[in-house]
Design goal:
It is a single chain. By secondary structure, this protein is mostly helical. The protein contains 5 helices and no strands. The longest helix has 26 residues. The radius of gyration is 18 Å and the shape is globular. It starts with a helix and ends with a helix. The relative contact order is 0.09.
């Protein structure tokens, strides 16, 4: 179930990058950020109301967890800018490569309270294959 959800998330991210990039090409980066995150806020409010969740669950959370929203702004900004120059495929490939490196470091060292999942030879081979594919996309 969760593997299907994660795969579907990849589909949504692919669509999001293209739609966000197209919006940025029509309105500019700053206006597109406002439109995108305004729509996201609206969708979040609908989900919050629909799920019956109460905001009192955020009491006592570490402050650094609230930086995720700011990271989302920069993610969209960088995706939009990259999309306009690199296209959807290369933007997503490089994005996934960055996610892969970051997540491997977080898993390997158990950062941010995550379970330790050490880097091994097979993971390195997988990353190397991905890097070779991206290099081929850039230079061929």
């Amino acid at each position: 179930m969760y593997k299907c959800m994660a795969s579907f998330d990849g589909i949504l991210i692919g669509l999001m990058v293209v739609l966000n990039g197209l919006l940025a090409s029509k309105t500019g980066n700053t206006q597109s950020l406002i439109i995108i995150h305004g729509a996201g806020l609206l969708a979040s409010v609908v989900l919050l109301i629909g799920s019956g969740t109460h905001l009192n669950r955020i009491k006592g959370l570490p402050y650094y967890l609230f930086t995720a929203g700011a990271l989302g702004i920069f993610t969209v900004l960088f995706n939009n800018s990259s999309f306009l120059k690199l296209g959807a495929t290369l933007t997503l490939c490089l994005n996934l490569l960055g996610q892969l490196f970051t997540s491997m470091i977080i898993d390997h060292f158990g950062l941010l309270g995550q379970q330790i999942n050490k880097i091994n030879f097979l993971k390195i081979i997988g990353v190397a294959i991905m890097v070779l594919g991206i290099i081929a996309m850039i230079f061929i």
